[in-house]
Amino acid sequence: MLINERSGTFDPPGALSPMSNNFSPAAHTVLVVDDTAANRYLYGTLLERNGYQTSFASDGYEAIEAVAQEKPSLILLDYMMPRLDGLGVLRRLRDDEETRELPIVVLTASAEPDHIDAALQAGANDYITKPVNGKILMARVRAMIRVDQNREARSSRSNSALFEELQEAARVQQAQLPPVPVEHQDWSITGALSPSGQVGGDIFDIIPVKDNRTIALLLDVSGHGTASALVASETRAELRNLFALMSLSEAVSKLNNHMARRETGKYSCLAALDIQENQVEVLNAGLPPVIVLRAHCLAESVQGSGLPIGMFENSTYTTSTWKIHPGDRIILMSDGLTEPFGATDDCRAAVQRLELWPQIPPRQHEPEELRDRIEALYQKQKNDAPDDATVLILDRLGCQNHEIAVPAQPSAITPCVQGVLQLAPSWVDADSFEQGLIEALTNAVVHGALEISSAGRALDGGQSFFREAEERPQQQRFKGRQIQVRTIETGVSYGVHIEWTGRACPKELRIESTRSLAPDLRVSQNPLLPSFHSGSQKRPDKPRLPEEDLSADQGKASVAGMGLLIISNVFDRVIWGPDGYSLELWLYRNEETMQASLRWPGQFSQPPKETAQSDEVNHE
Could you tell me which residues are beta bridge partners of residue 193? Predict the structure, then answer.
């Protein structure tokens, strides 16, 4: 008999009772692997009478398959078998993460120390020599399953405690982030952090410092996880102290030397902005480009030319300075938003995927919304987040709003036009704008405030008309009358609002227009006007009116002169006040901006909450 004292083994003593200490053998399956059928039967019978579930395999290959299907709690494994022996089974199971800890008892007919040592070296938990003692076998099986249960319980408790600690660390890391969105001076700032795990090495911050300055920064520590999160937290605290005392480049240089000497094996990529009124100073040490979006254009960028912080001592860092217009948007992002989907420096693609182009009116993004977009982006690409992903968005609010009070006299028109031109952004074509604005102000002053009919132009070569325009401001009735001129620059549009008292423009003479800037809708250039240009880039030619509309407007112009027709062709959008005492003239940088403005009426009647400045200019 291979099993000694077989009859005695079926009456297990109390110490080995299957139900003692809340141990239930029925909850466990033992896989019996032996190439001898009689042995499989006998071991199986013994196990089943002691309450265990059983499964069987006749060689090593069947054993590997049975482990995958049955998920046993323990294996009784024969040492000597054909095809794949016990050592081969041991090695394969120990190389698999899922079965590395599975309890395995090797049964061997050999008492050779080399065989026993080889089995233990291959990963066996225990061995029993044949012939097998039933009591010893059951004791070993029960003890080994209990030990494994305790190990799993400890592991589960440990994992649970670790998970709770990571959750607490994540809460602490989120608490370190500034509350966003937030409005600060003329800026709206928001952002979001999406770590690849519970915690990560990315962080952003907004730091008020002396002299009415504000520092906004995004930090990306190498790697991710708890170690990177600790370094990020420490680096953020040190940056807060340094930025309060010195400039961007000085602070980052000092921090670089500190981190390099610590030799933690971690380095940090950093982008920082020093915000001062209408300009920002930019430093980029290793992050994707910091960019400025103006409408649907990428207007400025600063590449990450500086070395990451902490890589080498005595590294130097330079800065760039930008003038920021109302309506501009600055974006900082970590490479977790660029690298998984293309080139590290391809910020435009990331902006497109996350739908971060500026809108009119400016729209604040909630952090939860931004995080959802980032996570949805990874899911769309069927890609787990390989790195922490962070974005920081700064919008320049409001408009540059200027008010000019113009005396109702012809001599004030030219100085007013020059003043408005000085306020115009660089992309506005000065010649065309000047011509259209002269016509608009002339109509407001002469025909509106001074109430002089244009019919006088046809008499005596217009001499009486111009003489009356010079003399009428001196008459008591017209003394003190003014033209109110307001300008608004949003960075993507420029508008002039003209308002007067006196005579309203007749409704039948008001030419309102909204022109398309789209290239495929362009028609021939208006022969009355020079070409438009946008800075150094040529702007699409402004289309003239369709023939039937032009004919109708020429009919109006025969009464009111060509001035109103010229105005309607110079500006992208012309809006008359309902009472005929005011006029809005708009130029837009592109089609998207203009179309957005159509959904945002009343820019002058409901001026932005905050303005850069307000000037009262009186041209005598």
Answer: 390
